[in-house]
Amino acid sequence: MTPEAARKILAEAELICSAENSALAVRRVASEITARLTNANPLVLAVMGGAVVFAGQLLSLLPFPLDFDYLQVSRYRDNTTGGQLSWVVEPSSTVAGRCVLVVDDILDEGITLAEICHRLFALGAAEVLTAVFADKQSDCSKPIAADFVGITVPDRYVFGFGMDIKGAWRNLPAVYALKRE
Ligand SMILES: O=P(O)(O)OC[C@H]1O[C@H](OP(=O)(O)OP(=O)(O)O)[C@H](O)[C@@H]1O
Ligand SMILES: Nc1nc2[nH]cnc2c(=O)[nH]1
């Protein structure tokens, strides 16, 4: 996408969650995770690339021992609707016997997070917990619910705070919804 096209998309978009409220949501999630996992020595796995902002901010707010690694799956690529899930990077650290905390930007249909949890249990994880920055409201039932949720977003395509629109605007500190067609 050209820089001009990216700027036009942002200019026409609707603010869903300000930078201030996004930061507050991360702090609240960090407190909830701390209360639950202080003594668990978890392996925190960020789902790249969408989790980059959430995971980065969250990690610095977790005041207990943990290991960090990442995995990568892709289902949307440059589209605004999901397709076939493909594994780009499998978890490389040893997950067997570990308490694993999966961190992702958004839970939409839930297919991505459900597949990741399934894979981690297959690799022998003792416990798998999930944290998403945004949970999308939906009338359809999802195959998984996240253990920790930052904000709820409407059933529209959203971007910012790690979430992209055709590769652009992961770097925004706030969350926006794409202009309605
Ligand atoms: O709940 P679902 O409907 O399965 O969608 C959620 C997934 O979609 C996005 O990933 P995407 O495939 O766009 O990859 P990305 O992280 O590279 O943007 C997002 O980062 C979540 O992992
Ligand atoms: N950027 C982005 N990625 C998604 N993956 C699943 N739903 C969404 C969404 O609304 N925005």
TrEMBL record:
InterPro entries on file: HGPRT, PRTase-like, PRTase_dom
Keywords: Glycosyltransferase, Membrane, Transferase, Transmembrane, Transmembrane helix
Transmembrane segments: 43-66
Pfam families: Pribosyltran (PF00156)
Occurrences of domain Phosphoribosyltransferase (ranges): 19-164
GO biological process, one term: hypoxanthine metabolic process
Catalytic activity: IMP + diphosphate = hypoxanthine + 5-phospho-alpha-D-ribose 1-diphosphate; GMP + diphosphate = guanine + 5-phospho-alpha-D-ribose 1-diphosphate
Single GO MF annotation: hypoxanthine phosphoribosyltransferase activity
Gene3D superfamilies according to UniProt: 3.40.50.2020
GO CC field: cytosol
CDD domains assigned to the protein according to its UniProt record, in alphabetical order: PRTases_typeI
PANTHER family cross-referenced by the UniProt entry: HYPOXANTHINE PHOSPHORIBOSYLTRANSFERASE, HYPOXANTHINE-GUANINE PHOSPHORIBOSYLTRANSFERASE
Protein's name in the database: Hypoxanthine phosphoribosyltransferase
Organism this protein belongs to: Rugosibacter aromaticivorans
